[in-house]
User: Fold this.
Amino acid sequence: MMQKAGIYLLVSMVLIMPVFSTAMQSFEQGQQLLESGRPIEAAVAFREALEQNPRYLDAWLGLAEAFLQLQELDQALEAAEEARRLGGRSVTVLNLYADVLLSLGRIDDAFAIYQQVLSIEPDNTDAVLGQAQIALAHNHTDKALQDFRLALERSPRNRTALLSLAIVAETNGDYESAQNY
Assistant:
């Protein structure tokens, strides 16, 4: 009986492994395409991974990110919601979901999600950056500057924080600070 179970397990693994490796290969290809600035092709690769494994959380995240880059916000939201269904309280999932909501103009919803992330992980730079963008949307420049500086302290090479600080400083007429960022 034990030998039959072992053979069944071995046969199952042999049949499943090609599907898993194909999904993983498609996902990795999607990541490379996304990183090289080719979001359309990345979305195709992520979809291929999801055809092989519809519960592949990272592929859903990649697909949402690709659609976000393409400004296909309804599709980004669908992918982010599926990632959220699969990934629950993962801060990576929650941050991406909040980013999509923010892009859709659902500022209060995005703020609530960023707050949730910060309750789980108080030093999360992405959530702090999201809240800084929301502060800017509400014309709370002092709060935005504070949050952008905090993000920069936590991640000194963060280009989003640096660029945002420079833009806000220049907008406020503080050209010297803008130059320093």
User: Anything to note?
Assistant: Residues 152 and 161 are 6 Å apart (CA to CA). Residues 2-35 form the longest helix (34 residues). Residues 8-20 have pLDDT under 50 and may be disordered.
